[in-house]
Amino acid sequence: MWFETTKLAWRAISRNMLRSFLTVLGVVIGVAAVIAMVTVGNGTTAKVRDELSRLGTNTLFVRPGQWGPGRASTEAKRFTDDDVTAIRDQVSGLRAVAPVNRGTVTVIAGGANRSTGVIGTTSDYLVAQDWELALGRDFLPNEDRGSQAACIIGETTRRELFGAASPVGQSIRVSNVACPVVGVLAVKGQSGMGDDQDDTVIMPLKLHQRRIGGTTTISSIILSAQEGVSTAKVQSDVESLLRERRRIAIGRDDDFSVNDMSQIAAAMTGTTVLLTGLLGAVAAVSLLVGGIGIMNIMLVSVTERTREIGIRLAIGALENQVLTQFLVEAVMLSIFGGVTGIVTGLALAYGVVSYLQVPFVASPTIILLAFVFSAAIGMIFGYFPARRAAQLNPIDALRHE
Amino acid sequence: MAAPLITFRQVSKVYGRGEATIRALDRIDLTITQGEFVSIMGPSGSGKSTAMNIIGALDLPSSGEYIFQGIPTSGFDRAQLTLLRRHMLGFVFQGFNLLARTSAVENVELPLVYRGMDHTERRRRAMAALEQVGLRGREGHTTQELSGGQQQRVAIARAIVTDPAVLLADEPTGNLDTKTSGEIMDLITRLNRDNGITVIMVTHEEDIAAYARRLLRFVDGHLVSDEIQASEAAHVV
């Protein structure tokens, strides 16, 4: 019986292939959109996570304010040199404590100039970031103290300013500061957020504060825990030390945050997940429209085949048998649309992720969900036309022209 | 005398209400026994089609009782009427009513599909029915590839494939020329005589009605005459 019903449904669908295809186009587009969006979203998330985790799990980031999507950190008090010293002296198990200030300024060398992110920090920065030097050396103690100007540049900056020539020993102007280049960083490539990490200039914090930032405070601190030391322990030690130093009353929230990479990754990917959900909702609406399309054409089909339904009822088809026949037809149509949509969506996603250079992460869950959902759409929107067919009066149906 | 197969007891059918009331059948009493060949005649609006629909379990009387093989049908719901049609009745229509783009054998198999019969048995029975109506070798032809007479033969095969007690024919020759009509009527007569199928046929042509042994005439919802015809033998091949 099921085989017969399926065969009949297939015959009805294939009898008018073009119409069947146009009928399910809504479902195809809806499913394809969902699959493509979710797949690209997953790929981007995976890439961000991967990049961030490569930065090391033993690294902690200390920032003023609570950090996360939708939370501004600009209000909170920045850190001081004494905070950095206190962390270095009072928290055990740390490998590096690097204060970091950032700014974007124009960098000039000879005739070439370029707008670049300039980081003010200490020699601990390269340790904390596990960043090797390709050429030259790290900052000397007197440079760290700020009594002598010195710069380390990233590979992109070097290429743009010096071309093929070696920059070590040459001087560049960072904003209005003349600064000899003492080292070149090893290539690091794109970050998880898509920006070029090699487009950078690093200078001693003191110099940066005085000449670039015009400040004596520090905007963030990067900590690196020693091998085998629990970052959770370090995190809570730093938190209690800073609460004390910033005089935060018991019961009040921190006005700073200490996060490891996994927490930052979660916050960053949270945005992606939100976006994926939103796009998914849009796609769900198009699936609804697709379902109405199926219902519409099934109603037309029932009217067209009134006489056939009459014959079937007259020769002994029960209401349920006619209902099942039309339901199977609707479900088959929508599954046909769903599968086409899944294939189209995956192909689309493959193209997009290749272009964005993010990994292709096809989620079996979402594919299965799309399949089940499209079948359900056929079931729901096919039920009304199928019931109408089943409840036809055989006498009237047989007379129908 | 054989047991009554079909009994009408004071059967009336009323359509509409108030001023627009139409009494399509007015208190009809009628008995048809197993193995009869009955023609029903009458002008349009006489109630012959309504009577046929009630006999065919496609419609229920407004009042009175339709008794099939001793079982009153007045309390039947749609499903019970369907099962009565499925197991006891075979239908042949004026317009053939075969499924389009479907082969002859598949058309004949259709009532068996709804009975849930397995494929092999179904095919065997359908082929036997096609053989009986003289269409052996044409089982693979689709409806469009068959002439009118052949289509009606397929329809008859579909009606008899379930071994029904009654074959109901509604103007079976209405769409056919005289020669083909004669062939179809000979086939129906043979099924009645050789297979013992009770045949009830609606027609408006006297020479077609003459094939039947018994002739009922309806006028304005009344059964006005019920006679046994003597001329049957003359037509049998």
Automatic annotation (TrEMBL), chain A:
It is found in: Cell membrane. InterPro entries: ABC3_permease_C (IPR003838), MacB_PCD (IPR025857), Macrolide_Exporter_MacB (IPR050250). The keyword Phosphoprotein does not apply. GO terms for molecular function: transmembrane transporter activity. Residues 281-394 form the ABC3 transporter permease C-terminal domain. The chain crosses the membrane at residues 21-40, 278-302, 330-353, 365-384. Belongs to the ABC-4 integral membrane protein family. This is FtsX-like permease family protein. It comes from Aliirhizobium smilacinae.
From TrEMBL, chain B:
InterPro entries: AAA+_ATPase, ABC_transporter-like_ATP-bd, ABC_transporter-like_CS, MacB-like_ATP-bd, P-loop_NTPase. GO terms for molecular function: ATP binding; ATP hydrolysis activity; transmembrane transporter activity. CDD domains: ABC_MJ0796_LolCDE_FtsE (cd03255). Keywords: ATP-binding, Cell inner membrane, Cell membrane, Membrane, Nucleotide-binding, Translocase, Transport. The keyword Lipid metabolism does not apply. Residues 6-237 form the ABC transporter domain. It comes from the Bacteria. One of its GO terms (cellular component) is membrane protein complex. PROSITE patterns: ABC_TRANSPORTER_1, ABC_TRANSPORTER_2. Belongs to the ABC transporter superfamily. Macrolide exporter (TC 3.A.1.122) family. This is ABC transporter ATP-binding protein. It comes from Aliirhizobium smilacinae.
